[in-house]
Design a protein that fits this description.
This protein is an all-alpha fold. The chain has helices at residues 3-29, 35-57, 64-91, 94-101, 104-115, 122-139, 151-175, 180-190, 192-206, 213-240, 243-246, 252-265, 271-288. The protein has one domain (3-288). The chain is globular.
Amino acid sequence: MNKHSIIGLSAGLIAASIWGGMYVVSKVVLEVIPPFTLLTLRLALGVLVLGVIVALRGKMDFSREQFRISFLVGFVGYGISLGFQFVGTKLSTASNGALVTSATPAFVLLFAPFLLGEKTTVRRVAALVISSLGVLAVIDPRTAEFSPSLFWGNTSLIAAALTWALYSVLVRKVSQTADLLKSSAVMLMGGLPTSVLFGLFELRSQGMGTVTPGVIGGVLFIGVVSTAIAMFLWNYAFAELPAAVASLTFFAQPVVGTLLGWFFLAEKITPLFLTGGMLIGIGILISAKET
């Protein structure tokens, strides 16, 4: 592996780890702020932070076409995919969400040959299979529920995984012709029309709870760390690595989430989890050897 590949892998793993650790914070904040209202705040903070960094760099050259494409890609990722994720989580279960969205790397492997011309090699398929088995061990699919009453929720979760994979592949395509930092800021803007629309509806129908300093801190963490920083790192991973390789770093999310659940919530770490974490690591290493 060269230096750029190592940095790219590290960026993807850090981003996924941050998202894995966002669960505890989100759970507290969502008790006060409705989902789409929180998403609006999250995206707006992300745009603000990245926009300030872009302005400080002093390089504002960004063509209208680059803006348009970046905005549309962001609409797919933050407007459509995260919307499906919220709906799916509400209409299904948390365990179903963890299981279904773990299909994202498989969908990346599906899109990459057509949109990027990347070859689907035996090594990449093997890495995906091994890592996927590791994820199944970590999240334990026996806890999932697929009753008819959850059909629309599960369908929304599948749509979320599919569109996030499409977004991630498109990020690599955009990064080949546009500045990644600027395009990342514009992509976050692409999610605002949808989140603002649904956020206003939420506030009218259910309002908002009491905002405490802790909630404000949680919103800042979600907006600055989990959005501005993590989203940029995720985009950077896809800019530097083949999409099929970068996508495997997504599997760090359930591992970190489980570890934090053990540390903060006294949840048990099982031998199955340890086996799964090892398999995920092996899969990422196998895939990384192609970079």
